[in-house]
DNA sequence: CAACAAGTGGACGATAGCCGTCCGTTTAGC
DNA sequence: GCTAAACGGACGGCTATCGTCCACTTGTTG
């Protein structure tokens, strides 16, 4: 579950690496998560190494590229999001399913600057298109179900919905108000009210 | 009106500059507008000079700093926005006033990447705090009026409103959909519906 | 416990992008 | 024509990041 990223990175080692090497990979992954949360996609290799308490050489030797590391962490994260989407699709109440997913989606994007950027950036710096396409497709179905159930207005496409949800996430938009940590909640509520049939 | 930025930049010349010099200032201002629209706040001095068809030396001689130039253009722009806000405050129907302003606000932000960034960036790269504070204060009053008139839900603050409006503007959020030029319209409609009492 | 392969850290050279100055050349205006 | 004003853009300086390389350290195994 949470070791996926590590496994992914250790997979292509020919023989079992030494204990300290494994430990360093773990540290690097944790550091990458933090850096991704706070700094975003363009967290530098040096920053990640510093956070991990590890030399820059170690980073490159262990994970090959800065991008490979970030990619592994992001894939793990997006996987979790996909799971939430599938759970939402199974909900009895279509509208409630959409609400649940939207909440998770926005919360996770809000929690990590890097995840937010990864889901937005259309330029594929890291190759995440496969997973994010899957995610899109889930949203499309969720919106479809909610509309068929008559719970959601039909003059709005799932693309519009994606747009609106993304807009609720804090960015450097906001007219200069320091956003409280949970600021997105009220925004999401308004948007969902606006989407209701 | 539209010559404000130019006047602002020519103001501190001791004696009347030569005709070609004035022409170049105009070109620089127009180029800065374009660059601001397309590239955003960190349009480089060289890019602006290139767009203006002018040497980089000329830019620095004429406008002093890259920042002074951008600032002049942005101030002009924000001035227009303020005017729209004041007009909206005079509307008979408080809700309609809010809707009108919101529309202008979002459209203008959507039209220029640089304006959008300028209104968001809390770090004061260019000193626009005065004008943007004025703008905030207008929005606060618009929201207040709409709520007093019973036209807008009261569990939402003007800060939340600012947040939501900013969110509707295209950014690099959007799950990888190339946004149509007028994409923000539908988003704005949903948000306004959600804000209605 | 020794010896060596595996691993480590971080200085370093390379690359890139932007800033703003400076000076030889051009041009407007009298 | 003549001169002061203006021009263009090459250039040096600065900052940031990347990723390599090698002298040194440490885990592991017999």
Automatic annotation (TrEMBL), chains A, B:
<dbReference type="GO" id="GO:0003700">
    <property type="term" value="F:DNA-binding transcription factor activity"/>
</dbReference>
<dbReference type="InterPro" id="IPR036271">
    <property type="entry name" value="Tet_transcr_reg_TetR-rel_C_sf"/>
</dbReference>
<dbReference type="InterPro" id="IPR049445">
    <property type="entry name" value="TetR_SbtR-like_C"/>
</dbReference>
<feature type="domain" description="HTH tetR-type">
    <location>
        <begin position="22"/>
        <end position="81"/>
    </location>
</feature>
<keyword id="KW-0804">Transcription</keyword>
<dbReference type="Pfam" id="PF21597">
    <property type="entry name" value="TetR_C_43"/>
</dbReference>
<feature type="DNA-binding region" description="H-T-H motif">
    <location>
        <begin position="44"/>
        <end position="63"/>
    </location>
</feature>
<dbReference type="Pfam" id="PF00440">
    <property type="entry name" value="TetR_N"/>
</dbReference>
<dbReference type="GO" id="GO:0000976">
    <property type="term" value="F:transcription cis-regulatory region binding"/>
</dbReference>
<dbReference type="InterPro" id="IPR009057">
    <property type="entry name" value="Homeodomain-like_sf"/>
</dbReference>
<dbReference type="InterPro" id="IPR050109">
    <property type="entry name" value="HTH-type_TetR-like_transc_reg"/>
</dbReference>
<dbReference type="InterPro" id="IPR001647">
    <property type="entry name" value="HTH_TetR"/>
</dbReference>
<keyword id="KW-0805">Transcription regulation</keyword>
<keyword id="KW-0238">DNA-binding</keyword>
<protein>
    <submittedName>
        <fullName>AcrR family transcriptional regulator</fullName>
    </submittedName>
</protein>
